[in-house]
Amino acid sequence: MSTLSRDRVRTMMGEVLSAQGKDLPSDDDTRLNAIGFRSLDFSELALRVEDELDAELNFDAPGLRSVETVSDVLDFIDQLQSA
């Protein structure tokens, strides 16, 4: 399976937010609730990642509960791709 770079995933995350008229800040330590990135947005991002990879990832992982920042999202998707 191919993998997506953190920059590519970050771009995709920005596209999800942009569709709602929101911007993704440059600081990866920004909390998701501060930018209005909700669970539905994460689901949209997950679908985009899977479509681009042409593979299913296990987004039901327990680690998802600890995702609170932009960096956490990027780390989480990195971990899923390497699993």
TrEMBL record:
Write down the InterPro entries for this protein, in alphabetical order: ACP-like_sf, PP-bd_ACP
- Name of the featured protein: Acyl carrier protein
The superkingdom listed in its UniProt entry is Bacteria
Domain named Carrier: which ranges? 3-81
**Species classification:** Bacteria, Bacillati, Actinomycetota, Actinomycetes, Micrococcales
Q: Which organism is it from?
A: Leekyejoonella antrihumi
